[in-house]
Amino acid sequence: MRMAPGPVRPTTLEAPPSPRVLWVGVAGEAWLALSRAARALGCEPVQASAPGAVSLELSRARPRLVLVHWRQVSERGPGGLGGLKSRVGASGAPVVLVAEPETPAEVLEAADAEGVEDCLLAPVGEAAVRARLATLLGARPPPVTSERYSPRVVLLAGGAGGARTWAGLGSLLEVSGHHLLYSATVEGAAARVEEHGSAPHLLIAVGDGARGGVWARSGTAARALLEGVPSLTVTPAESGRAATLLPRIHAMLGREGASLRVEERVPFCCPVEFGEGGPQGLAWTSGVSFALSPGGLFVRTLVPARPGAAVTLRIHLPTTGERLESHGVVAWANPFAPRDGLCCPHGMGVRFMGMGPPRLMHLRQLCQATASP
C-alpha cells in the first residue's frame, strides 16, 4: 500500500552575509554616524580600537570599507597602517582616514604613504559615509563623462626601473589623468593587452626595436587589439627625462595636459573640502591631497566631482592651521571602481582657476620644496 507523500519542505537558502564596515577608533560621534549610514544601506557596522580587536574582526570577515581615526595612526607609529592594509588585501576594502583640524602633518603624510584612499573631516556626517558606501556597493551610478574628459589608456612597454617613480613617465601620466597598463618587459606587453581586453589609445615602447618586439610576440588576439594603435618609441635616456615627453604624448592622445604642470608637483598632504555647484547650492564633500603644483591640486577621494565641473576648494593646512579657499575646474576624475589591471589613482586633479596673486604666491612657496624621488 502506497503512502501519500508528505508535505514538501521548501529549500531554505542561507542569505549572504551583510557587507561589513569597520571603524578603527573609539566609540563616539563618528561611530554613530557610520553605524546609521551602514545600517541604512544594509551593512553591518563593526567597531574596534585595540590592535588585537582589529585583527580579530579582520579574521572574521573582510570588510567593504575601513574608516580609521587619525589618532589610531598616531598611536601606532610609523607603519602602523601597513599591517591593516595587508590584512584587508590589495583588492579589498579602501581605507579612509578621519581627520580633524589639529591632525598633525606627519600623520597625514604617514597615512598617504601607507595607502589611505580618502579622508573625512570630523564631525563625520552621515551623508558623507553614505556616499562612500553607495559607491562601493554600486548603488550610486557613476557620473556620465563626455568624450572630452574620458580617460585614455596607455600601454607602457619595457619601462622597467623607474616608470612609476615620482618623476617617472608612468607616474606623470597617471597624475595627468591617464590610465596605465604597465609591462616591465616587451615580452609581457602583449599579455597585458590580452588581459585588459580592449585596445589602448597609445603604446609607448622604451628601447630600440621595442615596438616591433611587442608586435612580434603578440598572438592573434593581441594583434587585433593593437592594430592601428598609435605608438611612440623612446630611448631609455628619453624615458629618464619624462617631463620633456609629456607635450608630445598629450598631443597624440588629444588631451590638454600642460595646465596642471604635473612635472612641477611636490608631495602635499592635507585635508581638502570641495564643493560642486547644484540646484541646492554647493554640495560639499572631502578628500586628502597627495600632491600640489603651481597649476593644480591632486586629491585622493572615492567620490570625486565630475570631470569638467567647477569646484570651490577649502584647503586645510595642518602646519599653520590656515584654511585657504580657491576655485578650480576638475581636469580629470577617477571614482572608485574595479581597476581591472589598470593603474590610476582614485580621486581627481583640479586645475586652479581665478586664484589671486597673493594666494597663488603662497601656494608656489609651498611648492619650492624639492620633491622626494
What does this structure look like?
This protein has three domains: 20-136, Rossmann fold (3-Layer(aba) Sandwich), CATH 3.40.50.2300; 153-254; 262-366, Beta Barrel (Thrombin, subunit H). 30% of the residues lie in helices and 27% in strands. It contains 13 helices and 15 strands. The strands form three sheets. It has a six-stranded antiparallel barrel with strand order 10-11-12-15-14-13. α3 packs across α5, α8 (186-196) crosses α9 (210-216) and α8 crosses α10 (220-226).
Overall pLDDT score: 83
Largest sheet: spatial strand order = 10-11-12-15-14-13
What is the helix content?
25-40%
Output the helix-strand order. Answer: EHEHEHHEHEHEHEHEHHEHHEEEEEEH
Low-confidence stretches: 369-373
Strand % is 25-35%
Q: Determine the CATH topology of the largest domain.
A: Rossmann fold
Q: How many beta strands in the DSSP annotation?
A: 15
Distance between the termini: 87 Å
Q: Which descriptor suits the 3D outline?
A: globular
What is the CATH architecture assignment of the largest domain? 3-Layer(aba) Sandwich
Q: What profile does the largest beta sheet have?
A: 6 strands, antiparallel, barrel
CATH superfamily of the largest domain: Response regulator
By DSSP (H or I, 4+ residues per run), the number of helices equals: 13
InterPro entries: PilZ_domain
GO molecular function: cyclic-di-GMP binding
Protein name: PilZ domain-containing protein
Organism: Myxococcus llanfairpwllgwyngyllgogerychwyrndrobwllllantysiliogogogochensis
Descriptive key words:
373 residues; Thrombin, subunit H; 3 domains; six-stranded antiparallel β-barrel; Rossmann fold; alpha/beta
